[in-house]
Amino acid sequence: MLEIKNLYAKIEGREILKGINLSVAAGEVHAIMGPNGSGKSTLSQVLAGRESYEVSGSVLFNGTDLLSLAPEDRASAGVFLAFQYPVEIPGVGNLYFLRTAFNAIRKRRGEEEMDAIDFLALAKERMKLVEMDPSFMSRSVNEGFSGGEKKRNEIFQMAILEPTLAILDETDSGLDIDALKIVANGVNALRRKDRAMLVITHYQRLLDYIVPDRVHVLAHGKIVRSGGKELAVELEKSGYAEFI
Amino acid sequence: MSKSATIFTEALSCLEHKLDSRYPDWLNKLRHTAFSSVLDKGFPTYKDEDWRYTRVASILAIPFKPAQSGMDHLFSCDAIDKLAGRFGETRLVFVNGHFVSELSSQGPLKDGVRVESLGAVLSQGGPNLSHLFAGDAPLHEEESHVFTALNLALTEDGAFITIPPNTTVSDPISLVFLSDTGATPFVSNPRTIILAGANSRATVIEVYTGILDNLYFTNAVTDILLEDGAQVEHYKVQNEAHKSFHVALLNVRQGRGSKFSSHLTALGGAIGRHEMRVALTEEGAEATLNGLYLPESGQYLDNPILVEHRAPRCTSRQLYKGVIDGDGRGGFYGRIIVQQNAMKSDASQSNKNLLLSESAQVDTRPRLEILADDVKCVHGATVGQLDDEALFYLRSRGIPLENARGLLTYAFVSEMLNLIRVKPLQSYLTELVLSRFSRLV
Question: What is the ipTM of this complex?
Fold first, then answer.
């Protein structure tokens, strides 16, 4: 599903990704772990289409050249990024925002748009997945949300937009253990045979709840080690010292 | 002065005509004095601080003729609804500065409430209103400006609204000033006077609009007097034709414990200047001034504001937002004066601007003159662009760039639209503002 070859990314002349190679098959969950500054977040931003990076290499997503697409086209193609720091957008209602996104994607795919009433029903149903209070619907996007509420909102959006590739960037950061469980349950409920996930995290903790098929260690902009889920446990014990 | 020769000649001939007409002596005298002061002072130039961003020369370069009545047969009430919205039963319609009774309507009004044509009141030899025409009640004589004097010298008509004490008018009163010039550029000088008696309440909406490509100049003055405890909500929609000029002064005097709120939405005109002067003359008066200006290419929308705290324990709030697109320019010049005796004054001012293009410009100048101790005054101004993080966030969810820009722009202005308490006006302005961003949304 996702085929990353020799991916380089630069920002302000500084090279952050230095030749990433990674392939993820449909239905798989891959964890990307690594110390701070290793390029984890850059990888997620580059895959979602952040334009501030100078990028080379190739990323094929279901056969499409992902790097040539605008962020909104990547979303239509089925890519979703759960942000490490979800952006607050005062003045734009959460529900309105999500319906606009949902229908924009449908329109692009040549599908029928959904009206407000049907969409509200869909939203109510999917909110349960992350135990989100319906009052969040009428609030501005992420405005005044706590860290945990923001992360739930990300997973809720993912549940609505139903991507084929979900990238979760440090979804566990800023969460207490209860919130972490709720978010992880939401993510697990969204695991499907035709959906791949890239779980980016610093700590092994999240992977106790979202159990990955593969674990990769990213250091200095490169994947330096790959293994099964036991690699995460090993890293928890030994730390990243050997990779820094 | 040479450039303004034409407008003077025309104005003079018009004044002569007015002097031997049916108007009372006291008004003729005032007009004469006003006109002399126009001649004495001349028009402001870019060197005048207050006028630096209103390019008066481009207005004076056009040979405007005095507005004539008689174009009104071209319009129906439905057409007015479409052009200027419909917000309540009572509505006075002025076409090219002249009152048109056929297009106007009066809802059921309580005893003593009067909503009428100022022209009619004056020509019927009504009471001596000279104290109401005192000008713009300036702190210093030199701050009285020439366009106000020109308005007094030439005013044809306008609205005269009287709310008796202890009377609440719940249905909003609408005033529509519509310009349709045909081929001849003209100037109209509407004058509106609103007298709110003690503890009365009323809502007044002024709409200025014009026909598409017409060239005209609206020089409007509105005076609002709030007696003790009166509450007036004032809305103004400046949606003049794109080539036109709009210079307006809203002059407010507030008595003890009165509450005034004003809400401007400015979209039209090549030059649109909406000046506010609010004098909090007695203890405990409150003024809330909100404004939204949306200049795009070819437009300059300027907002000079003067709030004067003349008595203790008064409150003033200003919130003005601008969205500037293309090579448009916006201006905000907010002055707050707290006089020496105005202890415990509480004044705040906020001006936020969003620039949508590289060539968009805004001039924002706060100016606080505080002569009293023990006051609370805060002000802040921001100029920014659409947030890249927010744009990326929206796009990463599948919302195309142009729509994401529209959504964020709308989010910026929606705060102002949400402050409008007259629901039909809120929907009308929401549509109007959305259509302005139509290429974005």
Answer: 0.96
Residues written for chain B: 441
Domain count, chain B: 2
Shortest Cα–Cα distance, A95 to chain B (Å): 13
Residues A161-174: pLDDT tens digits?
999 999 999 999 88
Check CB contact under 8 Å for A72 and B398: yes
Cβ–Cβ under 8 Å, residues A38 and A15: no
CA distance A127 to chain B (A): 17
Listed residues B282, B312, B339: the one ending a domain: B282
Nearest to B401 among A70, A90, A157 (CB): A70
CA dihedral A159, A164, A167, A171 (to 10 degrees): 20
Whole-number CA gyration radius for chain A = 18
| Residue among A87, A90, A104 whose CB faces B398 most closely | A104
Q: Report the gap between the CA of B424 and the closest CA in chain A (Å).
A: 21
> According to the model, what pLDDT value does residue B427 have?
94
Chain A: give the shortest CA distance to residue B405, in Å.
Answer: 12
Contact B314, B345 (CB under 8 A): yes
Angstroms from A106 CA to nearest CA on chain B: 9
The reply to whether B410 and B275 lie within a common domain is: no
Domain ranges of chain A: 2-243
Q: Name the residue among B389, B398, B403 with its Cβ closest to that of A87.
A: B389
Sign of CA dihedral B97, B98, B102, B108: positive
Top residue of A74, A84, A100, A161 to mutate, by most chain B CBs within 10 Å, is A100
Instruction: Show Cβ contacts of residue B156 under 8 Å, excluding neighbours closer than 6 positions.
Output: B66, B67, B69, B97, B98, B119, B188, B189, B190
CA–CA distances in Å: residue B327 to residues A124, B52, B212, B243, B321: 45, 18, 20, 15, 17
Task: Report pLDDT digits (tens) over B299-314.
Answer: 999 999 999 999 999 9
Alpha-carbon gap, residue B30 to B129, rounded angstroms = 11
**Tokens for A1?**
């599903």
Any domain includes B320: no
Q: Choosing among B382, B388, B396, which should be mutated to test the A contact, i.e. which has the most A CBs within 10 A?
A: B396
Task: Enter the pTM of the model.
Answer: 0.87
Instruction: Determine contact: A160 vs chain B, CB below 8 A.
Output: no
- Residue B14 pLDDT more than 70? no
Q: Do A161 and B411 touch (CB under 8 A)?
A: no
What range defines the domain where residue B396 resides? Answer: 389-441
| Partners of residue B219 on adjacent β-strands | B247
What residues of chain B lie within 8 A of the CB of A98, using their CB? 397
Tell me which CATH homologous superfamily contains domain A2-243. P-loop containing nucleotide triphosphate hydrolases (3.40.50.300)
Interface size between A and B, measured as CB pairs under 8 A: 76
Spatial neighbors of B218 by CB under 8 A, at least 6 apart, are B177, B179, B187, B188, B190, B208, B210, B240, B244, B245, B246, B247, B248
Choosing from B262, B282, B302, the residue where a domain stops is B282
CA nearest B387 in A: which residue? Answer: A89
